[in-house]
Design a protein that fits this description.
The chain is an alpha/beta fold. It is built from 17 helices and 13 strands. Helix 10 packs across helix 15. This is Glycosyl transferase, group 1.
Length: 378
């Protein structure tokens, strides 16, 4: 640790999470002279992206499922890491890793520990099982948490009820940040439309989300099957991969739903967003979805489910529309309204771009820098 101010450990269940959301914050601390470490499970090869910015990475075989026996092995290996290294700050993320990490940090006498809740798994509308499992776990782990960072108002209120104190050990930040300039400056090249054989005036509705149950794609597809009967120039782009891809493709083929394009995992998200006319996200629950922030930064109108996180971003009727879960007719109606009215799309897009300035990466970096400064040695 020669010539460094100290050691910081980032902990998450999988490296995909760290690579997708936390590289700028690791770079922030690395640039300030801290030796940055990361510990997670390699799930999709994104560990190399974290290593590429100078972070020392450790393989800890977490499972996302709290019921998996793999987490016992992860518990032992993380314990050995914390016994060998002393960290000046441990920043934990994601439910399984954050619970085990906070317990082991306290057991090995390491602190301070920061926890970013990217969306508590207990929330308004969550299942009884979620409340019985995650709420008591978070109440217990609160005593091992020196600082809690939240990114939506519902979680902020829940944290206060758990005993966290605003400004002392509870901090609200505007998500993980979005590079507003990157999404605002790209000029559509029409390359994607050309590859898909779309016309210049076709309406492109894009959903960027992992194909997993939480993202609720079947709800979207049911609404889409109605919309295709009314607007023959609209195309639905599903960007992302996941365990439900085959089942969703079978549903589309079985119902003969037209103009649905499964694009899989992509790295050209700014270009895809710029070529869209409308962006949609109908998750069952969210923390603070970056796909909506990116769409708003690009000046696109959004349609989203009326759930925590989404409603922090979307002002109904001003920057987009919120629809209740299960309201297939309502979802199809909002998509049709936007598809038919270009002026409305432009107006909502402008308002969304204005609002998302508060969620820019520069501002979030400043917010996080202020939080880190409270806990790191000066």
């Amino acid at each position: 640790m020669t010539n460094t101010k100290g050691r910081v450990l980032y902990l998450a269940t999988v490296y995909t999470h760290l690579a997708a959301f936390h590289l700028p914050f690791m770079q922030l601390l690395h640039g300030k002279g801290y030796e940055v470490h990361a510990a997670a499970s390699s799930d999709q090869g994104r560990k190399k992206e974290v290593e590429a910015i100078g972070v020392r990475c450790w393989e800890i075989p977490f499972s996302r499922s709290p019921y998996s026996l793999k987490n016992w092995r992860a518990f032992r290996e993380l314990g050995r890491l914390l016994e060998y290294y002393r960290f000046d700050l441990i920043h934990v993320h994601t439910p399984v890793a954050s619970f085990l990490g906070r317990y082991l940090a306290r057991a090995t006498g390491q602190r301070p520990v920061l926890y970013t809740a990217h969306g508590f798994h207990f929330y308004q509308g969550a299942s009884l099982r979620n409340w019985l499992l995650y709420y008591p776990a978070e109440r217990l782990a609160a005593r091992w948490t020196d600082g809690l960072i939240v990114m939506n108002r519902e979680d902020y209120d829940s944290a206060i009820k758990m005993g966290f104190r605003p400004g002392e050990n509870l901090f609200y930040v505007h998500g993980v940040g979005v590079d507003v300039d990157k999404f605002n400056s790209i000029v559509s090249s029409r390359s994607l439309r050309d590859k898909l054989g779309l016309k210049a005036d076709d309406i492109v509705i894009t959903c960027i989300a992992e194909l997993i149950p939480r993202k609720n794609h079947l709800f979207l597809l049911k609404a889409w099957s109605r919309l295709t009967k009314k607007i023959c120039s609209a195309h639905l782009l599903l960007v992302g991969d996941g365990v439900l891809r085959q089942a969703l493709e079978c549903w589309v083929n079985g119902k003969s739903v037209s103009r649905v394009h499964f694009l899989g995992f992509r790295r050209d998200i700014p270009q895809l967003v710029q070529e869209a006319n409308i962006v949609v996200l109908v998750s069952r629950h969210e923390g603070l979805p970056r796909s909506l922030m990116e769409a708003m930064a690009a000046g696109k109108p959004v349609v989203a489910s009326n759930v925590r996180g989404n409603r922090d971003l979307v002002d109904h009727g001003r920057t987009g529309f919120l629809v209740e879960l299960g309201d297939v007719e309502g979802l199809a109606g909002y998509l049709e309204l936007l598809a038919r009215d270009e002026n409305l799309r432009l107006a909502l897009g402008r308002a969304g771009r204005e609002k998302i300035g508060d969620y820019s990466l520069d501002k979030v970096l400043a917010e996080m820098d202020a939080v880190y400064s409270r806990y790191l040695p000066s």
